[in-house]
Amino acid sequence: MRSAGRLLVVVLLAGACTSAPADAPRSAPETPTANPIETPTGTETPTPSPSGDPSPSHAVEPDMPTTFAKDLEPAEVPMEALVPEGSDVTGQWFGFTDDGVVILVAWAERGSDPFRLPRGIALWRRSTTAPHWRAALIRRHRGREGITEIQVSTGDMTGDGSDDALVFEGVGGSGACGRWLVIDLIRTETTFRKELCDGRIEPAPPGSSGLSMTESVFRQGDAHCCPSAIRETTLAWNGSAWRVTSRSVTST
């Protein structure tokens, strides 16, 4: 089941990371590689095959609900009932899949240091039998991990006709550092995972599937404010891995 309306949110937070020197900029687009490439750029390889246990994997605390009994429509479910007791809801999103509408909800738990609050995100799926809403995936971060915000975009990024979730777990500062994940909402599996600074990842434009990644390119001696070039990479999911379909570097 698909819907024309879906909420698209991508927020880049500042991060306290510094990029290392990268390739010299070029003004002409690079020719797409003929062979599959599973490491387009950056510090972490996108997973070549889905993983059913998104990292980090922490034990669920007793105060984290895993079911909601009432058979309510997605927009009617109280978000505070889907997060740990006493937490503040920081975002909610809906994904439209062939198996129905799913709910994603992010939260921040209470703490003395506003920059080191425990945070998390959960995926909730509707059931035809009681309890009618059940947590299908929970990612929970301790305060010392330094996650400052969690944001989500939903859309069909893998081209299977059902929405996926692009999740950004930011760590704050001037480099927009953070972890990017793509979660297949039908299978509840992570298909992409990447640490990135001085860049962003977005779903492909409407009407197409895939990911679009933009990164700053620094030469030796570049100030952090002023990269020498911008690298743009597009990736597509072939059913088992993400492959680079195009890449270009443009001087600034």
Features:
disordered N terminus; mainly beta; 5-stranded antiparallel beta sheet; 252 residues; 40% strand
What can you tell me about this protein's structure?
The chain has one domain. It is 0% helix and 40% strand. It contains no helices and 14 strands. The strands form 3 sheets. Strands 1-14-13-12-11 form a 5-stranded antiparallel β-sheet, with no helix packed on it. A 5-stranded antiparallel β-sheet has the order 2-6-5-4-3, with no helix packed on it. Strands 7-8-9-10 form a 4-stranded antiparallel β-sheet, with no helix packed on it.
Please give the largest β-sheet.
5 strands, antiparallel
Low-confidence stretches: 1-60
Query: What does the radius of gyration come to?
Result: 19 Å
Going by helix content, strand content and strand pairing, the class is: mainly beta
The coarse overall form would be flat
Placed side by side, the strands forming the largest sheet appear as 1-14-13-12-11
How many domain modules? 1
Proportion of helical residues: under 10%
The SSE order reads: EEEEEEEEEEEEEE
Strand content: 35-45%
Number of strands: 14
Give the N-to-C terminal Cα separation.
43 Å
What's the pLDDT, averaged over the residues?
A: 81
Number of helices: 0
